Fold this protein.
Amino acid sequence: MSRAAVFDAIVSDEDLNIIGINENSVFHNFSLEERPIASGPFAILRWGEIDRPPFIGVNPPMRLTIWFHWPSEETNDFSKLDNAIDICDNLLSGLGGESGIDGYTVTCVRPTGRSGDLKDDGFQTITKNASYEVLFRKT
């Protein structure tokens, strides 16, 4: 699972920081009706299980879905969201062996798909998401 290693990698990535994704704009399971920040892009990390039986002695992968949002009054350019997902794909795919302060180590991350271009009327944003399978072990 290692939520900590994934979160730390995302908020400290220079390329994501350049576009405004950092420790102040990445949230775990944010579910309120209002935007978590007033302006600029933000990301919401949602963790869930995968419907696959585990191998004996091996943790099943966890599903990570990252929702990227950008206020629609600031842009309607979905390529900005595509760029953020491209950066995450590269970053997370190379994350094997990273330990988090939560006591878990990421062993492998595999991108599993992306959404189409979407609008979030509650947050008043354009949005896209990307999904990943995250393999981990207890450190």
Observations:
- The mean pLDDT is 92.
- The longest strand covers residues 125-138.
